Amino acid sequence: MSSEYAKQLGAKLRAIRTQQGLSLHGVEEKSQGRWKAVVVGSYERGDRAVTVQRLAELADFYGVPVQELLPGTTPGGAAEPPPKLVLDLERLAHVPQEKAGPLQRYAATIQSQRGDYNGKVLSIRQDDLRTLAVIYDQSPSVLTEQLISWGVLDADARRAVAHDEG
């Protein structure tokens, strides 16, 4: 376990303990000596590696799911990520230049920056869509509808935009 990961895990352990209003000695008392203050403190500082078994037992003691103690997880579980925005580059090539010119140039720039020349699809980020909306002088949701009507974005993109604007 990397020392950075151990420190992040320790910070999660400390946060759960303090949320429950427990001191290190309070943990030892409440657990009737099962969890020694010095051991829990060393886990929290990242000075001592905690086994999966011990982590599961500690999560059970605190009354939280194990994943709440792991670094990189969000409180309450991760929400479903919004759908990706994927441009269909083959269809984009068939949209008249006067309509799609700015989008074609933007997509070509992203491809160049990423070195991504598969020519079929291109994932774009929410920030890219907002930038394109400014270029087209439309809101992201209106531009999304336009791109769907051109056939270059899947209808699932509506959910991604609604998630971002929500």
TrEMBL record:
Leader sequence segment: none
SUPFAM superfamilies membership: lambda repressor-like DNA-binding domains
Annotated ranges, domain HTH cro/C1-type: 13-69
PROSITE patterns to which the protein is assigned, alphabetical: HTH_CROC1
Pfam family, one: HTH_31
Residue stretches in coiled coil: none
GO molecular function: DNA binding
Gene Ontology terms: biological process: negative regulation of DNA-templated transcription
Protein name per UniProt: Transcriptional regulator
Species this protein is from: Streptomyces corynorhini
Highest classification ranks of the organism: Bacteria, Bacillati, Actinomycetota, Actinomycetes, Kitasatosporales
